[in-house]
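Lecture 7, part B: from sequences to assemblies.

Below are the input chains for today's worked example.
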Amino acid sequence: MNIEQLVRPNIRALKPYSSARSEFKGEAEVFLDANENPFDTGYNRYPDPLQWALKDRIAELKGVRPEHIFLGNGSDEAIDLLLRIFCEPQEDFIITLPPTYGMYKVSADIADVEIKEVPLRPNFQPDVDAILTTGASPHAKLLFLCNPNNPTGNSLNTDKVEQLLDQFNGVVVIDEAYIDFSAKKSFIHRIEEFDNLVILQTFSKAWGLAGIRLGMAFAQKPIIALFNKVKPPYNINQLTQQAALEALKNQEQQQAWVNRILGQRTVIQQFLAGLDYVERIFPSDANFILVKVKDPNDLYRYLVDKKIIVRNRSSVLLCDGCLRISIGTPKENEKLFAAMLDYDV
Ligand SMILES: Cc1ncc(COP(=O)(O)O)c(C=O)c1O
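Predicted structure of the full complex, as structure tokens:
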């Protein structure tokens, strides 16, 4: 696919900002090029604009090349940049499959880019034919697939994703924010195969680092080059780079958290199955469970009164009657159980 052809003309023509730290590379003793404060605070210097030390470690962990990585201020920054790279306001459009993560629509709305929604089927799987029909336009620039999907928790069928990758004539973004909780395979190792594929992952979930705001995008070099062209020069601050490098030293800890969360997911599923006001527990490949109950608004308010906050998704398409419950610590989950046992329908 000709990726350049999909890019907005103004971005193709853009001469990006050249920062002091990217203009000079190499060893030096005296840096008088960036108008920094020269007195050492530990933070007086601008950070590496391309975060190579961190990318090297992530590349090792994920089994990809560092040149195939873009790091953003959360995956939300990558979503925003994709819209600004590829979508001409009021001309191009993106495709999303609701119910899904809300930021795709918000970012499109901010960018004044039309969004065409092709709802998931009632089994929460993509309607491939409808997506391809909608996507049969030179203005269809981005297709967002959330896998596992938020808020439904399920994984998308691999054959369907492959069909979309083969046949959609724009960029396919697979948001794998929850992939570490899934037994299904990531598509990250397919980026060499598809030049129109972008994989999003994040440090916000399994790594326990939502507070440092660090998201990852994996793609072939031309798309990574576009991200780097439009991103703010120092988009990942030094504290974030350091915290992530520190966390990456202890992958066992991440795995241990994931295992505990998966164990608790089963405990919660078993608990919910015993409640007569629970109508349906949807299978989950993520760190949350979508559950259909008799009166979601009433249960939601009841839990808030008990100082327990879950997400009310009952007004969302295909999620009638549903609450989304994140997996907590065993202690937190016990509190949830006690409250839910006390609940009178
Ligand atoms: C599917 C999905 N993608 C991305 C994000 C946001 O990730 P980040 O914290 O990296 O911006 C979320 C957060 O809930 C999410 O559910």
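Note for the exam: Residues 3 and 222 are 7 Å apart (CA to CA). Keep this in mind when comparing with the next example.
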